[in-house]
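ugh ok so i messed up the first submission bc i forgot one of the chains. this is the corrected input, ALL of the components this time, i swear. 541 residues overall. if the numbers dont match what u have on ur side tell me asap before i send this to the collaborators (the ones from the other lab, u know who)
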Amino acid sequence: MPLALRELQAAFAVHVVGGERADLAGAVMGDSMSADARLRIYRHHVAYSLGSALAATFGTVHVLVGEAFLRRLVQSFIGQGLPVQPVLTEYGADFPAFVAGYEPAASLPYLADIARLDWALNVAFHSPAGRRLAAADLAAIAPERLPSLSLAVPEGATLIGSRYPLDRIWNASQPGAPADTVDLGQGRADLLVLRRSGDAAFIVLAVGEAAFVAALIDGKSLEGAAEQASHADPSFDLSTAFARLLSLEAFAALQQGAEGEG
Amino acid sequence: MRPAAGIGLRSPHLAEIGRDRPATGFLEIHAENHLGGSPARQAIERLRENYDFSVHAVGLSLGSVDGLDETHLGRVVELVKRLKPALVSDHLSWSVHGGRYFNDLLPLPYTEEALDVVVRNLDRLQEALGRQVSIENPSCYLGFAQSTLTEPEFLAELVRRSGCGLLLDLNNIVVTAHNLRLDPRDWLKALPGEAITEYHLAGHAVNDCDGEPILIDDHGSRVGDQVWALFGDALRRYGPRPTLVEWDTDIPALPVLLDEATRAERMIQQVRADAARAA
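and heres the new structure output, hopefully the right one now
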């Protein structure tokens, strides 16, 4: 009795991720090349192609751990969760958390944060560029309204805080970077990852700036965010920080009518 | 779209094509690579001024017994409505089961049951797009004992029942025929030729499997001699169509890819000249 299509696809789905379905080989025509050998081609391709997609998305992790280690790491990850849709640049949101718990990578404590950075760059790259807030936009707003203004980061932007100097590790991993070692004791890094016109990039933020951006992302007004930033860093200066972030196009343009809202 | 030779547009070549706008018949993109808002998507929208486009999907999973993923379908529809490509296509295969995506063109048994499933999914796709979609013959590494139709018979029946077009991949015919011990020329004979909307050409690898050579559809080299020969047969039998050269792994410098397309273009011109002389 041949397998119904639903059963056949269910069996194939088990097989390609490494499971055993004895009834599947019986459904496949073998000759001098066995049914099992033919089935293995599909299993190998699924693992290899998904692994290659993850290697491309997490390019810095790839450079840091090398090809052989990365292949083992991504195969373990794929075993825990296949993509749920076919856009492979959107596969791997859970990978940084997986890396954090991956025992063989325990000697690289910054690796999960680098995976978060790779993911954030990937998300920013695939987000629409969108219009950014410019100084001229603010000129149209009555000065007394500015403290209560809410600002958003651009679509696809991510704020990443790490105990490790992620920016230096990332820079040292780029093609052609000098073979300098990075001192992990150089301390924390706060990065705002953004879509740029032709790519994605990150801005290195001072502690106060990071607290300021985090508060804005949380929905605080400019005034509330500045207060939070001063808590984090008493030397925080709103006008300096704001001018710098504005010049780096770190905010999305105001939504229509937002400037009129209290 | 005129029956000329074009190339698959891949990200390593995007900047060069955007700058130099080299002459080629058309550009084909993989739908799933351009559903977001990346700079590549913007660059492609700009290239529409200079090139005809073909949108080739790899993840609609037309053979899935579960039906289509409506969210993904909606994104592909949005892309197609935006780019207004001359051709839209996907494969005779499945890649989704139980909400999980395998990123492979998995094989179908060629049965009445599978035919019903593919026709149902194709109807949904063509309805959502409001246009004809072409279906590509896949590379196969196995056959199912329960199949009651050959692959060309299955494709011909799909055309009859759904009104779809056929994207004839000559490399996939060579790969499948070798791996399943078929004659590629026999395979090519029995198609509804008027339904063919496009040809695909690509390179394949030869790997070892159980001590025997197996052909792997890796799109990682120049088009092989056997594929060129079969392309010539297809041109003479069915006539010129838009013809794509695909290269997806170990992607070469753009001139190499364009050179392959030029060879395809010369064959198209030759067949056209021969037909004109014979008429």
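quick check: Chain B touches chain A through 50 residues (CB under 8 Å). that seems consistent at least. The longest helix of chain B spans residues 254-278.
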